């Protein structure tokens, strides 16, 4: 694999023969831009641009290439860059003083937009090594060395043989296209249909080409044809069954096919051939995390990071896993490590903000969500998360604006509708809150708290029959939802259905005998039913629970 030249900012390991980094888009070492400029090293990086050291193969001289980082710049910025480059090339076209710097070329190649700068040299130093002419063929012997003694022989003529002495020449035969190389290039440019055609031809011309079968598998996976991708990887593995990279790639396909047990077997196979193959460990960890085996996932992430501590995505996955385990302090450390390696991902800033909010520090969380929005202003998730910070800070008007921004970008975001309803309820705008809960349940009718909150608002608005429907929906999702049993009892009591109200409150007190509210409510219903002694007993027990709670707090 070809490591990205931006070791600190990216450090991505690319497929063999890649010209450009699949993660950040800059060229890898040895790549040729426009078939002429051979990339050698990264000289610097600043605000969406990189400076690269390269070799101009046509004039055998060192050049500097200034290029835009594809993933950090917009089409408008690239167009402006090219206009500036054209102007710079025009202004420096007449610069001939040795030692001066001039722009000698500019343009686009693949995802890169760039210009080339070179030092002006003395004329004899800048002669081209070769000149290509259409229809011409170069011969190694076309320039003959002059004898040392014959300095006066300043001109050279090539002998022209007579027709009779010209031996018959075979007709030139065209070399077959390098289909593998064409497939690799199309894949790097994201032209997957073209890449697939080339890889298929490559496998026909060379049925034992592991790279062609592997490339075909990767391309089919990008095209959403996972079953066919699996067949291609199986063929590649049959040619080289001990390659951990192929087994790991096969695992990725099985993940898309939801064949998780087989996926794990592939990671085991990869690690049996190379116990230090970092991508098998990281892939294994992510698969275990998705299968709700977080502790095992963390062990795999630890192993991956022990082998390569510069893997930003693994630190992020570890942080997410720790976050789901509510181990927020540890999650914060992992996310900070990921940000030290690569701070260009909005999801990292967003996750750090969420951790801080969970640590009851919403005022510290806000700037991190704002940073995420600077990187991805059209992403609804940071808008939603920032709104949650503002809700916790009781800045309700700003929170509503944040939820509205998120919903403008994704109207199906059930969580945003639900939290928007909570804020409106806190502002006592009950009808508007109900409308938000209705939208939330339209997109996710399994949202338990939305059913409960909807029922509570309907009860508050004295729409008790509708409230009962909502509480029953909540209890269908969770039979042990104590608050729903309690409020269902209150709604039934308001409707005069005392026996049913008592039955609901009995459920609440049986599931949570330490909760005083249900006991108080039960006492009220018993008294209404004329069962005064039982009512007094319930009331005394509720009072005792309140005292115990007060002492525990003290």
Automatic annotation (TrEMBL):
Stored Gene3D superfamilies: Phosphorylase Kinase, domain 1 (3.30.200.20), Tetratricopeptide repeat domain (1.25.40.10)
Residues annotated as signal peptide: none
Statement: the UniProt record of this protein carries the keyword Cell inner membrane: no
InterPro entries given in the database record: TPR-like_helical_dom_sf, TPR_rpt, Ycf3/AcsC/BcsC/TPR_MFPF
Spans of repeat TPR: 210-243, 244-277, 278-311, 312-345, 346-379, 414-447, 448-481, 482-515
SMART domains named among the record's database cross-references: TPR
Pfam hit, one: TPR_1
Domain of life: Bacteria
Sorted UniProt keywords: Repeat, TPR repeat
UniProt keyword Lipid biosynthesis present: no
Protein name: Uncharacterized protein
Species assigned in the record: Tengunoibacter tsumagoiensis
High-level lineage: Bacteria, Bacillati, Chloroflexota, Ktedonobacteria, Ktedonobacterales
């Amino acid at each position: 694999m070809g490591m990205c030249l931006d070791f600190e900012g990216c450090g991505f390991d690319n497929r063999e023969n890649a010209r450009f980094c699949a993660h950040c888009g800059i060229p890898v070492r040895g790549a040729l831009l426009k078939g002429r400029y051979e990339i050698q090293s990264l000289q610097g990086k600043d605000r969406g641009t990189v400076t690269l050291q390269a070799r101009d193969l046509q004039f055998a001289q060192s050049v500097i290439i200034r290029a835009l980082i594809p993933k950090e710049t917009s089409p408008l910025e690239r167009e402006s860059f090219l206009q500036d480059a054209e102007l710079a090339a025009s202004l420096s076209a007449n610069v001939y003083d040795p030692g001066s710097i001039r722009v000698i070329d500019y343009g686009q190649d693949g995802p890169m937009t760039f210009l080339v700068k070179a030092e002006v040299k003395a004329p004899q130093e800048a002669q081209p090594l070769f000149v290509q002419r259409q229809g011409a063929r170069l011969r190694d012997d076309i320039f003959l060395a002059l004898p040392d003694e014959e300095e006066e022989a300043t001109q050279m003529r090539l002998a022209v043989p007579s027709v009779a002495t010209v031996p018959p020449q075979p007709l030139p035969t065209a070399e077959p296209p390098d289909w593998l190389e064409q497939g690799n290039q199309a894949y790097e440019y994201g032209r997957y249909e073209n890449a697939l055609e080339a890889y298929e031809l490559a496998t026909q011309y060379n049925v034992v080409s592991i790279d062609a079968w592997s490339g075909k598998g990767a391309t089919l996976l990008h095209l959403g044809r996972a079953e066919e991708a699996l067949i291609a990887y199986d063929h590649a593995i049959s040619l080289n069954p001990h390659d951990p990279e192929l087994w790991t790639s096969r695992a990725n396909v099985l993940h898309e096919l939801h064949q998780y047990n087989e996926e794990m077997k592939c990671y085991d196979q990869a690690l049996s051939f190379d116990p230090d193959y970092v991508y098998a460990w990281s892939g294994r960890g992510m698969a275990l995390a998705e299968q709700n085996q977080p502790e095992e996932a963390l062990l795999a992430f630890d192993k991956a990071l022990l082998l390569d501590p510069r893997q930003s995505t693994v630190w992020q996955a570890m942080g997410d896993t720790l976050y789901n385990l509510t181990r927020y302090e540890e999650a914060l450390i992992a996310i900070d490590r990921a940000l030290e390696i690569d701070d260009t991902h909005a999801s990292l800033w967003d996750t750090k903000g969420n951790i801080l909010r969970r640590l009851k520090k919403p005022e510290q969380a806000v700037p991190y969500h704002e940073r995420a929005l600077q990187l991805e202003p059209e992403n609804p998730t940071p808008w939603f998360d920032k709104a949650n910070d503002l809700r916790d800070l009781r800045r309700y008007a700003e929170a509503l604006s944040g939820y509205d921004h998120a919903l403008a970008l994704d109207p199906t975001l059930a969580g945003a509708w639900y939290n928007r309803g909570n804020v409106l309820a806190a502002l006592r705008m009950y009808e508007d809150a109900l409308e938000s809960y209705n939208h939330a349940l339209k997109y996710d009718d399994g949202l338990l708290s939305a059913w409960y909150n909807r029922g509570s608002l309907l009860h508050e608005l004295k729409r008790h029959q509708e409230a009962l429907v909502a509480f029953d929906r909540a209890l269908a999702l969770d039979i042990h939802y104590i608050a729903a049993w309690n409020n269902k009892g209150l709604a039934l009591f308001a409707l005069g259905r005392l026996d049913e109200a008592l039955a609901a409150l009995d459920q609440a007190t049986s599931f949570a005998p330490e909760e005083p509210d249900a006991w108080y409510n039960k006492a009220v219903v018993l008294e209404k039913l004329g069962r005064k002694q039982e009512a007094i007993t319930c009331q005394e027990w509720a009072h005792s629970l309140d005292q115990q709670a007060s002492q525990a707090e003290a």
